[in-house]
Amino acid sequence: MRSVWAIARLEIKECLRSKIIYVIGALMLLFILLGRGCNAGNTTVNATLISEEVRQNLSLALAFHMIAFWSMVLCGLIASGILPKEFEEKKLIMVLCRPVKRSSFLTGKLLAVMLISSISFVLFTTIFYAFFYIKAGQVNLNIIPGSFLLLINLFSIAVISFLSSLFLPRMLAPLTGLLIYVMSIGFEIPFYFDKIRMVWTPSAALQTIHQLFPRLGAVQFLCGSFVNSMPSLDACLPAIGNVILYSLAIWLSVIFIFENRQI
Amino acid sequence: MNWAIEADNLIKQYGNNKALDQVSLRVQQGDIFGFLGPNGAGKTTFIKILLNLSFADSGVAKIFNADSKKVAARQKVGFLPEMPFFYESLTVEEFLNFQAQLIGIADRNILQEVNTSLQRLNIVNERKKKIGTLSKGMRQKVSIAQALLNSPALLLLDEPTSSLDPIGIKEVRDILLEMQQRGTTIFINSHLLSEVERTCSRVAIINRGRIIKSGNKDDLSNKIKHLEIVGEGFTDSLGAQLTAAFKKDIDLNGSRIRISLTDEYDALAIHQMIVQHGGKIVSFTWVKESLEDIFFRLVKSEDT
Question: Does the distance separating the beta carbons of A10 and B71 come in below 8 Å?
Answer without folding.
Answer: no
